[in-house]
Amino acid sequence: MATPAPSAPSFDTNALELETLQLLPCGCVTSVRRVRPWEYLFVSIEAKGPHCILAPHRLGRVVQIGNRFDLEDEQDDNVAR
Fold first, then answer.
1. Strand order in 62-67's β-sheet?
2. Under a CB-based contact definition with an 8 Å cutoff, are residues 34 and 10 in contact?
3. Is 0.70 topped by the overall pTM?
4. Which of 14, 20, 63, 25 is nearest to 42 (CA)?
């Protein structure tokens, strides 16, 4: 008797919504995506710059998670420095 293969958990492809793509000075590209329905944002590395020497910049690496206000406040702090 054949055993049915386990099915992968279903994932709602509409749960992730692309907000923006941003080019970093090192040439890497990050994406900012919204996770629905919780309204959280996460930033990940989408492309490695051809001359980037920063080890933490790895494809698919999530570099930041938070809600919109947390991320905006942190960006404002970085600009002020």
1. 16-23, 29-35, 40-47, 62-67
2. no
3. no
4. 63
- How far is it, in rounded angstroms, from Cα 35 to Cα 52? 28
| Cα separation, 74 vs 70, whole angstroms | 6
Looking at residue 42, what is its pLDDT? Answer: 85
Distance of CA 31 to the CA centre of its chain: 5
Q: Residue 7: inside a domain, yes or no?
A: no
Tell me the pLDDT tens digit for each residue of 18-76. 889 999 999 999 999 888 777 788 889 999 999 999 999 999 898 888 876 666 565 55
Indicate whether 75 belongs to any domain. Answer: yes
Query: By the 8 A CB rule, do 29 and 47 touch?
Result: yes
**For the chain, what is the domain count?**
1
